[in-house]
What we know:
Helices cover 34% and strands 19% of the residues. By secondary structure, the protein is α+β, with helices and mostly antiparallel strands. The strands form eight sheets. A four-stranded antiparallel β-sheet has the order 2-9-6-7, with no helix packed on it. A four-stranded antiparallel β-sheet has the order 12-21-18-19. Residues 5-14 have low confidence and may be disordered.
Amino acid sequence: MESERLKELIMEKNNDKPKLRFPGFTDPWEQHKLDEISDKVTEKNTENFYDETFTNSAEFGVVTQRDFFDKDISNAKNLNGYYVVQNDDFVYNPRISKFAPVGPIKRNRLARTGVMSPLYYVFRTHGIDKNYLEHYLNTTCWHSFMKLNGDSGARSDRFAIKDSVFIEMPIPFPNLEEQKKIGKFFDAITILITLHQRKLNHLQDKKKSLLQKMFPKNGEDFPELRFPGFTDHWEQRKLGTIAELNPKAELPEIFKYVDLGSVVGTEMITHREEKKVAAPSRAQRLARQGDLFYQTVRPYQKNNYLFEKPCNNYVFSTGYAQMRPHGDGYFLLSLVQNNGFVRTVLDRCSGTSYPAINSNDLAEMEVYIPEKNNEQVIIGNFFKSIDNLITLHQRKLNHLQEQKKSLLQQMFI
């Protein structure tokens, strides 16, 4: 009786038609309970026939345990109590995270059979388009049912809901033809997103490789790759001689504060307004156009920002070393992103959980730079063009992901 009332409430809230539909479809959507379109998988790996253990990641879906954790967590000899998960089976993981506040439900897309812990709820569908259901479960539309019928349980990282209640979950059910159209549509968007992600990854890997080849390796004064016309050896200099570190400046009365975490990669993603009279103690680095801000805490993250804005009211945290280059700023940015430089910095860091280097030690680091300033400029411009391309692909990817997210919310109820 209660589940029927819940079904009515959800229908009242969401109506029985989505906001966006393909032409030719006007009928109201039905609702089926999860147990009407699926069966719980109860087959156990009793003979230890399967030895590949899967896990369900909120971000990456059903993946092999070895790929996700870089090692096997389960004991291969004790998998006889695990559920057998076939290709296209769906899996509910009760572990909650920022990506999945009630736990994720993901489909096995690995095209092979494996096993999963009995902590998961595994189900096999019938009478419904699998692509349609998969994309529906990537929305938040079903979360309200979970929150009304379950809780985080005794453990704060687990969502607790009884199987007998879980299978009562109402699933919006258009006719099969409309299901297939919706499924194919979101499959196409997902493929497009994957292609853009691969292009972005390729560019990032290419940049990483070029940074290693276009700067000298430790102990060498010639890079592996150079632009035509440059043959002179590179000079060894202390970092503090090619840039002024942490120049003193009076803070403005009102400024935009850039804290650790505000810079990701080479992009500033956030800042907040602060007043001098109530400024955080770490707000000390007043930016000037052309300054480079090098993250000294966890430098392996390579969150370093070249400040190219003509504005003088940005103030960075002391978690960044401020460098005012005497030469080309983008060359210096590329130099400090090089893996060889990062490894040397890490050798001089203190701390384990949050390794950090102080600015004085940073200034004393030996680096190699070209004798001719115009070689610095050419290298800087080259990596700037790569970074611009990476930023462009990242924005396209973000836009596609946001579009998909919006369409998911509008094309389901």
